[in-house]
Design a protein that fits this description.
The protein is mainly alpha-helical. Helix content is 74%, strand content 5%. The longest helix is centred in the N-terminal third of the chain and has 29 residues, at 2-30.
């Protein structure tokens, strides 16, 4: 019963990290670029800070995806065996 709860919370946190990463990516895409662009801001937050949030949440998402995959390792092995089982 503990594993499903852990998986649920990992998925929730990964979804939140994904949404914030996507939003910060869109913000960064539309912010001006150039030598003085690090001083530009959106909602009172400078580009460098948006970029830091984007990068750190992306790293968190990668770590959470790896943990998610490891929690489903047995399922992955069983499904792989079933997909490549010889049909007689």
């Amino acid at each position: 019963m503990v594993k499903p709860k852990i998986n649920y919370w990992i998925d929730v946190v990964m979804l939140i990290a994904f949404l914030i990463t996507a939003i910060t990516g869109i913000i960064l895409f539309f912010m001006p670029s150039g030598p003085k662009s690090s001083l530009s801001s959106f909602l009172g937050v400078i580009k460098h800070t948006w970029s830091s949030w984007h990068q750190w949440l992306g790293i968190a998402m990668i770590i959470l995806a790896i943990v998610h995959f490891l929690l489903h390792w047995k399922w992955f092995i069983v499904m792989t065996k079933n997909l490549f089982k010889r049909q007689i």
